[in-house]
Amino acid sequence: MDVKFSDSVKELIGERGLKIDDVIDIINTAESSNRKLNDGSKNLAKKRIGEVTIYAVYDDNGNVETAYSHRMVLGEIQKTTDEPDPTNWVCVSCNEKAVIGTVLMTYMGVTRSGPAVVCEKCGDAWIEEYLATKTIAAAEGLFEKKKA
Amino acid sequence: MSEIIGETESLCPECLKVIPAVKIAENDNIYLEKTCPEHGKYKVLIWRGVDDYLSLKKYACVPSKPNVCAVDKEEIVCPLDCGLCKEHTQHTCIAILEVTNGCNLKCPICFASASSGYKFHPDLDTIRKMYQTALDSVGENVCIQISGGEPTIRDDLPEIVKMGKDMSISYIELNTNGVRFAEEIEFLQRCKDAGVDSLYFSFDGVTSDVFMKTCGRDLLETKLKTIENCKKVEMGVTLVTVVSPDINLDQIGQIIDFAKKNVPTVKGVHFQPLSYFGRYPIVPQDENRTVLPDLLVEIEKQTKGQLRVDNFIPTSCTNVHCDIKSMSVVLEDGSLFPLTHRSMGPPKDTCCIASKTRQEVSDLWRFVDESMDSSNESDPEPGSWDEFIQRAKSNYLTISSMPFQDVWNVETERLRGCCIHTITPDGKLIPFCLFNINSVHGQTLYRHEVFGKYSQ
To answer: Does residue A2 fall inside a structural domain?
Structure first.
């Protein structure tokens, strides 16, 4: 896939401390393995690179809409309710509708839960942008701040 | 078996002459040993744990010199020509502004020897100049501790605070015994309205007998009342506990428990091992001292391991052997969750650490605030990271310590790296310890000499 970035997306990726090459790598990996979410027009892919999980949102033509990351490690799905909130996402490799669930996330030896888009069939989970850039960033910042 | 691991200079406890000193490792302790040609040899315990002492050196900061030096001499004798000078390696992190040497108590233990002899009570013009000294030296993000004596005995204290804020001082904390605030909540409110950001509040124990020893009066109820009043007016408080093995070393766990129960009004506990300057009850032997490793071992023991020695790291702002801090979130079940650990290693970037320290707390909360603004959930899921963040914001506790140096254990090398400075009316900044150090005969190098000149 020919991965393309607008100037504003490039800027955003830089501000978030991410590398363009990593984002391209994530998209190529997702495209060849089919491990991704798709909502009919957009794809959401993720990959752990070193200490960071990086996400990319892109359309079927390879135009990248956004990218973000977290350092927490995702654990198992803790629960989905009997009638979980549906999402527009489909887990492409399972061909299964993804739902909103709760996953365990571990950072610096602390495990707590948070909402995620999950595929109940394969058990994979994806963190959405609002959570990664707000709550998780603040939690990671609390630890990192103390380190700095 | 003993080994010399460092050389420095110190002072003679009898005559205050500058004399050479060596640091000696012996039986896993570190001692400072020095000899005055006239008054003989002194040897005092300064640390327990030789490996620990040496390993903390990796926390040393990249020095960041003061913007201006009041002392401009070719031949400087440290620490007799202090003010600061070009040999000083660290700029000011907190400047201490003493507004009186009078006090509404007369405690048997008082670093400032308050309420004795002359009366130091600077007028508003002099205080303005003292604020300006800090502004000129620090430049930006100036943190001031208004101290004394007891600053609340001045009825014009709110005016003094407002003047500082009008001169663009970023942060003002008030060092107080809290007695007047227990009696007059209106005065506390006026100080808060004038711009006091938090109280640095002496709180030596949780039983009456401790206060009998440290203050000569049973102040327990008064102290509790001060905290209640702070809760009512939403004034943040750091509990400051003088620590002595002869008085209250066995209560530090209970004091931390008390602090936990009183977050968010109580923001932290600062343990202040008794330094032998000003008024103090005895000429100290090693067994009367609480060196930093002693304190940390007691904290670990008395909190039943909730806080461990390894949760305490040097601030890297002043000399690495001068202070230590830990930061924790108080969790739902009342236990402490430490955010600091030595396994995280020293700061990645130790440059300009003093200015970073000044910004650190406000920055952190701004960061957390931003994340809170965008998550509109008022009741976060129990056990979630969202809840953790909300707790971290409101239920946060800092446990720290900085044992001040006295005439027995002072090292000029540590004085030169000091970032806590007393402002003098003649435009100087003097490291706090040095300002207060006195000989066994009560003679100081700075406190009484400087304030005496400006007394009424």
So the answer is: no
Give me the residue label for tokens 């078996």: B1
Q: Chain-centre distance of CA B68, in angstroms?
A: 23
* Domain containing residue A130: 7-147
Q: Where are the alpha helices (DSSP H) in B314-454?
A: 353-374, 385-394, 412-416, 432-436, 447-453
A53 within a domain of the structure (yes/no): yes
Q: Using a CB–CB cutoff of 8 Å, tell me whether A122 touches chain B.
A: no
Q: Which of B51, B19, B62 is nearest to B411 (CA)?
A: B19
ipTM score assigned to the predicted complex: 0.84
Of A112, A134, A146, the CB nearest to B375: A134
Q: Is the peptide bond before B149 cis (omega within 30 degrees of 0)?
A: yes
Residue A12 forms part of a structural domain: yes
Mean pLDDT value across residues B386-414: 90
Best probe of the A interface among B388, B394, B397, by most A CBs < 10 A, is: B388
Region B64-77 average pLDDT: 87
The tens digit of pLDDT for each residue in B179-233 reads 999 999 999 999 999 999 999 999 999 999 999 999 999 999 999 999 999 999 9
Q: Tally the domains of chain A.
A: 1
Domain-wise residue ranges, chain B:
2-59, 94-436
**CATH number assigned to the domain covering B94-436:** 3.20.20.70
Say if A51 falls within a structural domain.
Answer: yes
pLDDT digits (tens, 9 = 90+) for B330-370: 987 888 988 787 876 776 554 444 455 545 544 445 445 55
What is the per-residue pLDDT across A123-136, written as a single tens digit (0 to 9) for each? Answer: 999 999 988 888 88
Element (DSSP H or E) covering residue A14: helix A7-15
* Average pLDDT for B6-28: 97
In angstroms, what separates the C-alpha of B346 from chain A's closest C-alpha? 7
Residue that is written with structure tokens 């030896």 in the block? A109
The whole-angstrom separation of Cα B270 and Cα B255 is: 10
